Amino acid sequence: MQGFRLFSVSGFLVIILFLFLPTCGTGGETGSSPGGQSGVAVLVGAGDIALCGSSADEATANILDAIPGTVFTLGDNAYPDGTDSDFARCYEPSWGRHRARTRPAPGNHEYHTAGAAPYFSYFGAAAGEPGKGYYSYDLGGWHIIVLNSQCSEVGGCGPGSPQYEWLKNDLATHQSPCTLAYWHHPLFSSGPHGNNPEVRPFWELLYAAGAEIVLNGHDHDYERFAPQDPSGNPAPDGIVEFVVGTGGGNLYSFGTVKPNSLVRNNTDHGVLKLTLRPDGYDWEFISVSGRFSDSGTGTCR
What we know:
It is a single chain. This protein is about 15% helix and about 30% strand. By secondary structure, the chain is α/β, with parallel strands linked by helices. The protein has a single domain, classed as Metallo-dependent phosphatases (Purple Acid Phosphatase, chain A, domain 2). A hairpin with a 5-residue loop joins strand 14 and strand 15. Helix 4 runs parallel beside helix 5.
């Protein structure tokens, strides 16, 4: 943005022009994203999205049409294999119209194609550095972290791995009052895929840093957990996890209900809208049918 300041020195009027150019975080880097001004911001999206031959991804994209803000994706963006054709034929006609305001995360289906190359090509710099796919950005007063839970493709997710060390450094560098992270595979899930302990190291770092929210996909359903610690123990100062695998893929049946699971739905596709305030947040799951909703408010730790 451009501006100027006016002040008087010895009776003379001095005009000082100044420039401030925000940067956008990419692979393994950090920065501000478009719309990342201080104040209230909106983050909206889902995972497990575009399936050719299904109308569900178009229906969820229609919801996005009416909601301004930054769009997130939680992986498995273009079925079945994340190819150039899958993105062109399946994703582009629906969620693709929101690509310019989307900050994506990759899923396992992206890696059905070597190195998830079409995913990185389609989203460009917004997806982070190819070969990594993890990055961070600021939105309102919040610090947002995007991780790659396809651990075998990026040198692991545990201590000593490049991504773990990057996350540790990013959290130390950006000690924001409010922090949110998202990636594909959930640590906790009552869906058929269930818990994925490989991503627990992410939780351990985020919990120690006081993060508020984790968003995941992978299981094609909606589930919200009470605040908990990385071991799954209830914790008033814990992380609230949302599984939002409802972007358009065929919905799954639930398996064994995990501890601390508060709300579950597998009958409605939809998106999660988060209104991020400097000291807290509001959430609202907006379904395609309107028959199911979930909403509430939380504060920053």
